Here is the input.
Amino acid sequence: AMAAAAGHVVAAGLRLGTLSVLVLAPLRTPSGRPRDEALRRWMERFHPLALGCVGVVVATGLFASWLHGGSPRVLFRTDWGFTLLVKLLGVGVVLAVGWRNGWRLRPRRGEPGASGRLLDSAPLEVVVAQLVLLATATLVAMSPLEEHHLFGNG
Here is the structure.
């Protein structure tokens, strides 16, 4: 469980940290061809890393949810479960925006305006990921099984 939690944190931090740099770095590069070329190179390097991190985060997140929640009923009967559902909704938004950026915009990166569309949507991914971190911090402070048993739902 400890190794899975560590893997979850490292993979999520690596993906979010790298994405944040990818969003902020072009702000210091003049717009036009040099920025488009730099963004193209960065996306090619970031995409495989992002895919690997997402795989680790999803797998370890499912394991942790099963380990701590114990039962799907906990999702709908406890504050912990509701918070986890909010987190999962945020993760879904991050995955959807990331999918759009990686599979729809990345292949079009040579087209005029493609880097602008990417730079418009990637900050949304970063902001929602920050909200997912807030939900995660809340989850860490809660005890799902204890709350579930307190109300006689065990």
Summary: Residues 33-69 form the longest helix (37 residues). DSSP finds six helices and no strands in the chain. The chain has a mean pLDDT of 80.
